[in-house]
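Minutes, project check-in
Item: structure for the 467-residue chain
Input as provided by the requester:
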Amino acid sequence: MKLTKKHKATQVIFLFALIVTAALTYAKAPNPKRSSYSPVVITEDFDSIMAKMKAAKPEVMNRQMDLLHERYDLSNRPAEGVTMSRGKPIQDGVRVKLPLGMTWQKLAEMTPDEIREKGWFPKGLMPLPFPNHPEGGMLFPQFVIDEVKKQEGRDLTRFDLDFDLPNHFLPEFPAAIYLTTRPDLGDVSQGKVVTMDNYYELFNGILNPKQLEGVRLLVTPFPQQQFNQTEDRRSERPSRGVTCFDCHSNGHTAAPTHLVGDIRPQEFRHRLDTPTLRGLNIQRLFGSQRALKSVEDFTEFEQRAAYFDGDPVTATKKGVNILERGSQVHFMAEFEALLDFPPAPKLDVFGKLEPGKATKAELRGQDVFFGKGTCSTCHPAPYYTDNLMHNLKTERFYKPQMINGRYAAADGPIKTFPLRGIKDSPPYHHDGRLLTLEDTVEFYNLILGAKLTEQEKKDLVEFLRAL
């Protein structure tokens, strides 16, 4: 049958319509291909993004709090007579909940394969997801938000998320500040949170001009992925950004959380419990994958990439701050290297307990630490770190699983952090999954197969508190 010109024209128009429809459908469909990059051009307006995320926030936070209550005893139960440097009580006891009918003694008698196959690995020892793991980003406790807003007018509130862990499991705020150069002064914080408003009056006459300039830069706000001026920020108003000391408050930590910037895809990124900067001068590995070998490298990297979830492409859009290596980076790093551990009056010059000052329980705990517990293999005195990476292979104990957007498969190698002053730095482990020192002892007793008795565990906690 011979087609007329009219039929041919109709056929061409029909085929063209099919092609256009297919193209539009493909353009609208989500792209399943993974990318290492965050989206740079945001096509949705800010008000629409904020409205949707505010509406989703209650469900997101309820899901995270349900997870925490399922895992932990979150009650406020201070340890008797034990406080952090400036007086905040530390929390007492094991808070990780066990499967019904299980005890820590029974678990310790089982092999990793048995625990894995029967699903008896306690949920509180599993990787801890971020409050909204697919979203991530810097997230601050409310007391940090309130103080920064009071002093500077900057608002670190996120409209999409609230911090999840209760305040009684977090470090004291304001934290004490000890300097390696002036141990005679003790705590130089004067009970204040160091900001642009007061850093000069606190440190003028104590630091040299380079170090003083370093502090100024550490309390200067610079744009960050969630706190900036763009339509994909997570603050209601355009923000001047964050400072180094917003997270590392007073050169210590206020335990804000984040996701590490150097792992992809998103579900494999570890939640990050902000570590203290105390004792930075004796550390040799920096960054979540420990690819940075000096504090100067780390200081520069933070501004160029870590502030932007490890994506320098979006950093350019939001206003990356390029520090000058020969002066600014050096000044900041020089001050950071002055931040000392808190005093430990029971330790001698080799970092061991002096028998005349320590209790019998602490001395027994020291014996466990350097003996049966094998803790000193990775945490040797005097600073209780070997400055190395170790893979605990926790995946021996559980099957890979998705937990609120976090794929728990394996932690990989993690850094040996110093244990000096450890009671001042809860929560514990790299992602903050362990709320107390007792939880930490149970975790390592199980993972390392140390088979400690109940008394040995208690003594070990007493020793750790003395560090």
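Outcome recorded: The chain has two domains: 72-126+344-467, 135-343.
No further action items on this chain.
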